[in-house]
Amino acid sequence: FSDYSNENINGKIYKIYLAELIQPTCPYCRSTHLKHNGHYVSNVHFITADASKPVTIGLRKQRVLCNGCLKRSMAQSNLINKGCYISNTSKRKILSALTEDRSMTSIARKHNVSVNTVQRVLEACSSKFYDDFDHHPEHLAFDKFKGVGKKLHFICLDGNTHKVVQILRTRFKSDILRYFYKFTPKARAMVKTVTMDLNCYYPLV
Fold first, then answer.
1. CA within 20 to 30 Å of 6's CA: 27, 58, 114, 123, which one?
2. For the whole model, what pTM was predicted?
């Protein structure tokens, strides 16, 4: 970090921190014989205790040319993912807020991000959802919730652990059946009870 300032952007005071990200070695051949070739500046959205004073890190990433393998590279950090401007710390804080009984709009306002950003953070967790189509929890809980654009989405939970099994973009019967028919008949037969707050019953077997 090299400098700090307050800037008025669209009527809101932003805390701006300037920092430089160093590239110590070549990521391809691990050589330290590098030729610096400028910087790429990313304005990284970071967490803040006061939503009225957003924090931005002006991160100057070193660009280098390796004298060994002649390949170009740019410094990377676990602070943010490549090509992204929302810090991973902010994403984790948004994800934590999604476990609370709050709307995506209020979460977005609290963290100074768009509702679409909150939705993308939620969708990024889809790989952690239940995706073994040969097995199924014995007890399921179905419900609907309001998401982006005030659209209703479908959510399925493990009735015992309350862990999310799957979230679908819509609550239409055809989409729900299409998802459950991905499971084998044997897996669907494992389901003993279904608790739901929906208008229709969807047979799983």
1. 114
2. 0.58
d(CA 204, CA 186): 11
Residues in the chain: 205
pLDDT at residue 53 in the model: 85
Q: Do 63 and 40 contact (CB within 8 A), yes or no?
A: yes
Would you state the pLDDT for residue 127?
A: 55
Maximum distance among all Cα pairs of the chain, rounded to whole angstroms: 66
Residue 150 CB neighbours (<10 A): 9
Average pLDDT over residues 192-197: 79
Closest CA to 107 of 129, 122, 123, 85: 122
Amino acid at position 62, single letter: Q
Query: What is the distance between the alpha carbons of residues 43 and 117, in angstroms, rounded to a whole number?
Result: 16
Contact 39, 63 (CB under 8 A): yes
Q: What values do phi and psi take at 67, rounded to 5?
A: -75, -15
CA 90, 58, 41, 32 torsion-angle sign: negative
Which residue in this structure is represented by tokens 């609550």? Answer: 171
Provide DSSP, 112-132: T--HHHHHHHHHTTGGGS---
